[in-house]
Structures are given as C-alpha cells and as structure tokens.
Amino acid sequence: QVQLQESGPGLVRPSETLSLTCIVSGDSISGYYWSWIRQPPGKGLEWIGYIYDSGTTNYNPSLQSRVTISVDTSKNQFSLKLSSVTAADTAVYYCAKSIAPSWNYFDPWGQGTLVTVSS
Amino acid sequence: DIVMTQSPDSLAVSLGERATINCKSSRSVLYSSNNMNYLAWYQQKPGQPPNLLIRWASTRESGVPDRFSGSGSGTDFTLTISSLQAEDVAVYYCQQYYSTPLTFGGGTKVEIK
Question: How far is CA B87 from CA A71, A107, B8, B109, B110, in A?
Fold first, then answer.
C-alpha cells in the first residue's frame, strides 16, 4: 500500500523559497502522477501542480511563475519549490498520487506539513 | 478555470438522518466521448488529510460505507449520507478533474444536531 510523507522546514522567511519533499513508499513513483496541494489554515484546498516520472509538469496558472516541481525516481521522491513566499503562502502542504492525467483524483494523500511564512 | 461551488457551507443533521451536499461546476465536467463525469468527493476529518470517497461522480471507493452515495451529471452533483453516523462529522469537498487547473469546492462542514 503506497504511503506518502512530506518533509521540509516548518518556517520560511518572507521572500525566500519554500522547499518540500514527498517520499513515496510501498510503490514505485514511476507510471503515476504526483501532485502538491495546499490548504491555508481553516480554508479550502488549492491544487499547486503535478509531475509525471518523465518530468512532465502541469502547474496551476495562479502559482506558475513561482513553482517548480521535480522528481527523483532513484530516490522514489518528488519535490516542491515555491519562490518569493509571503504570508499568503502559509498553509498545510500535501502531496498526493493520481493515476493518469485524465484520472486526476487524489488517492492517497500524505499527512501534510504545515509551513508558516513569517519573519 | 472551472469554479466549483458547494452548498450549504455547513449543515447540522441528527444522527440517523439524511445529509445532502450540493456541488455545482461552472462548466460541464461530463466528457462526451466516454459519458463520464470527472468529479470526485473527499471527506476531511480534523487534523487529517482529505480521503477519497467517490470518483466519477458516483463510484464509491473500496471500504467506503454504502451510506455514502454520489449522483448528478454535467454541472450539478450531490453527495448524500443516507443515515448520518457520529464518525461522519467532517468537511466534505468536491473536486473536478475534467481540466487543469484542478479545482475544489469550498467545502461543506457536517455536524451533529
């Protein structure tokens, strides 16, 4: 059974770059689509983007200029970088799996990691 | 972008009673070539990640109790909990996967009356 675990700093300074990694266990990262989704405290869900094992990416246009998602198939993990962060980027960040670009519902999800943007 | 609008924002239902959550998309999420609705429902309990309940608008995931059902087509969808249990207290989200950017509804909080 595939499991996902996010890791990274819980505090990021304004204007700096948020960096998170999602480690995939129980299955190969190859052949699937891997997304980042975030949820500001007490608010709803926002899809950030996804990556395929070939490196193909698709980003939410609202964040595209600041987002980079990459994959390391040798380590069975993928990563998120979000640059020039502000307080509005404070959120729980989740990684999640989907099967195909036309089957982009998310299952499973990682437990999530809270990232706070503050000086 | 396809905007997903859920209603109500919250509802309180007595144990054993029916709970109905609505989700409306700004454009149809029905793919004509396969007659499938690209719509999923999730349940999120406090402190937990969302959990996939239903995909393709009405296909229940393995292990999901059959009191949960999804219906609708095109732009209008419904998640029904036929007999609310205490463990169903959660926020429920719909999500369209018809096109990117993938988008979610704002969520509906279900509580016990």
Answer: 37, 20, 20, 13, 11
Distance CA B86, CA A37 (A): 28
Q: Are A98 and A32 in contact (CB under 8 A)?
A: yes
pLDDT of residue A101: 76
Residues 36-55, chain B, touching A (beta carbon < 8 A) = 38, 40, 42, 48-52, 55
CA distance B82 to chain A (A): 24
Which residues of chain B make contact with A102, given a CB cutoff of 8 A? 38, 97
Residue B81 has pLDDT above 90, yes or no: yes
Q: What is the pLDDT of residues B10-45, one digit of tens each?
A: 999 999 999 999 999 999 999 999 999 999 999 999
Q: Read off the tokens for A1.
A: 């059974």
Q: Which residues of chain A does B38 touch, with a Cβ-Cβ cutoff of 8 Å?
A: 102
Structure tokens at A24: 């995939």
* B68-73/A33-39 β-pairing: unpaired
